[in-house]
Structure formats: C-alpha cells, structure tokens
Amino acid sequence: MKPVIYFDWDGTLADSMNLCFEEVRVTLERMGLSPRTDEQIRRCNGPAFDACVEILDVPRELAKDFLRVRQETELDIIESQQRLFPGVAEMVASLRQVADLAIVSNGMPEYIRRSLRVTGLEGQFVRWEAFRPGRTKTEALARMLEEMKPRAACMVGDCVGDIEAGKANGLYTLGAGYGYGTPEERRAADAVACSVKELEETLREWAISHTNEQEVLT
Question: How many angstroms separate the CA atoms of 193 and 177, rounded?
C-alpha cells in the first residue's frame, strides 16, 4: 500500500486568486452591492465558502442570495480563470509514482470537479472531499482517513486551517510557502516548502522513506 498525500486545493495546487477576485467582483455587481477592498476579497480565497459573507460584510438578509450568485458566477467563469501554479501538473505526475494523492478542500463540490477537468488533473487523485455545510476541514480529513486507512499519510496546505487539520489528525504536515497563507499561519507545520519544486522533492523523499518503512515492517 502506497502512502497517501492529502492536498489542499486553493493556494496549494490551484493559483485561483484571479478567479476569486473576478467572481467576487462580478457577484457584487450582479447584486448591486458596492465594491469591496482587495484585502477583503483576497481573504475569501481559502476559507469555507460561506465565510466570505462575514469577510465582505454582506447584509445578513442577502447572505443566502449572495452565496448562490457567487457559486453561479464561479462556475460561469472557471473555464477562463482557473489555473495551476507552474510546475504543479508535473509534480502531480511525479508523485503519483510513489504515493496515492487525495484532495481535501473548502471548495464546493462542483467547483472541485470542474477545476480538476479544466486544469487537466481529472483522474489523477484517488479521492477528493469538498466543502459540506457544518463540517470543518479537520472533520473532512478525519473521515477520509477513516475510510482510506492509509499506513502513512501527510497533509499539505498553505493556510492555518490545513496545518491544523493535519495536526489534529496526527499527520506529518507540510506548508506550501508560495501559497496565500502567511508565514505565521504555517509556523506550526513540520516543514515548509518555498516553491513547487521544493514541495515535490520533499514529498517524494517522504513518500519513498515511508514506502521503505512499510516494506521492512512486512
């Protein structure tokens, strides 16, 4: 059994900040709401989808409509706006040789499904979990671990929620230092990779070492 690498999506594999800015800008326009600051919009890329209501100070009575329109807008423009960080496709192809790969994300299910197709990564992951109302990323990862039962696993992400999810589930954690989170958010990670290439090298070394350990044990 190969070790399993669990990836966050936005800010770790997908360079989706342009998509986030455009979908929020268009959603605000469609609903007749005033523009928000770049910092507010930037903070919407990564947390659970409904967290953007508070971040953007959307009136409570408009929250449900805002989330619906944002999701519709996201799917409308994903074909033209979604992209990977340079080198991610090559990294995924390389790591599949030594590990099973999975995604645990705060993105909505259809967003992840379409993103994988648009970026050419469809079929490269053995499993993915998207956002479900009322469930944290820590809980989503715990469910995946319970169902997959890997002998060895690690969690990779750029933000504090990713690192906390991995730590809470007893996993080795690796911070994507090139992503959208801050150095402070990644401070608790076991290690930080400052580039996609460094991330690939670190994960290959981790996967091979844990494969060898399993072979010794068996």
Answer: 5
